[in-house]
Design goal:
alpha+beta; 4 helices; 13% strand
Length: 147
Amino acid sequence: MAGILFFGIIVLDQIVKLAVKANMAPGETIPLIPHVFHFTYVLNPGAAFGILENQRWFFIVAGVLILLFFAGLYPRMRRQDPWLRYGCVALLGGAVGNLIDRIYNGLVVDFFDFRIWPVFNIADIAIVCGVCCMMYSILFKSKEAKA
């Protein structure tokens, strides 16, 4: 199941990014709900909110190290709470989705645009959901296990 989640995130993320690149020009926006939600093609040279702009090699090295760390840690995680395990898998799938962009394009393709938040992509959603699941497990599930 974890493998399906991991590869599903990567495949969905990359398919949508390929469709965006094939059908839109950078900076082009398509209003889906005017003034609320647009589909906007943005090439992001940094991390969340554009931090560490143009640090491509830093992100590639960090992404590979995270991938190796979780690959080594995953066998032990199989016995952990599913929220923690699948949270880590989602985070890793999102990180790999963005790592693929950084390796091949040098930039990350973003497209979800809510106009009040920086533009983001499916990999970013997976990363945030993964972290939220991990936090839920650490903050609440570990207390239940001790009780």
